[in-house]
Design goal:
Number of strands: 3
Strand content: 5-15%
Number of helices: 4
Radius of gyration: 16 Å
């Protein structure tokens, strides 16, 4: 059995159009993500807030992946980069790289200027250890410097 090289035409996963539709617009629905913009449910305990439940989940995943104290971590499907930021900020990861197929998610995360975090808009299928120039978010407004609309955390700083 031969090894096929990875090319964009060979990838049969989610289309870029579907990604743009799903993730590149934050309307009122997305306010339930909380300030960390985590696109999944938190790990709740009695008395938790949305923020504490989301942080608990991020910490759980960092520990379960044995990422604590790692030199470098790759997060495939990093979304808005909340896990990347948490890994560097709280779990002593030296450099966290995230990839997302959403140019707007990547742009928002890069705009946070989190030390030790690098976010790229690329498909995991095409991932390379060598960074490329970031694509432009098609929804970014030059006037607002924002890709997304919605809650306070969705606004680029």
């Amino acid at each position: 059995m031969g090894h096929e090289s990875k090319t964009r035409s060979a990838y049969k996963g989610t289309s870029s159009k579907a990604i743009l539709h799903q993730y590149d617009f934050l309307g009122d629905f997305y306010l339930i993500l909380g300030p960390e913009l985590v696109f999944s449910y938190g790990m709740w305990e009695e008395g938790d807030t949305l923020d504490s439940a989301q942080i608990r989940k991020l910490d759980y995943h960092a520990e379960a992946a044995h990422a604590v104290g790692a030199d470098r971590v790759l997060d495939i499907g990093c979304g808005y980069g909340s896990l990347l930021h948490r890994l560097v900020q709280a779990h002593h990861v030296k450099h966290a790289v995230g990839i997302t197929m959403s140019p707007c998610q990547a742009a928002w995360a890069r705009d946070q200027h989190w030390p030790g975090c690098e976010v790229r808009a690329e498909n995991w299928f095409d991932h390379s250890a060598t960074p490329r120039a970031p694509p432009v978010c098609p929804r970014r407004s030059a006037a607002t410097s924002s890709c997304v609309s919605g809650g306070k955390s969705a606004r680029a700083t």
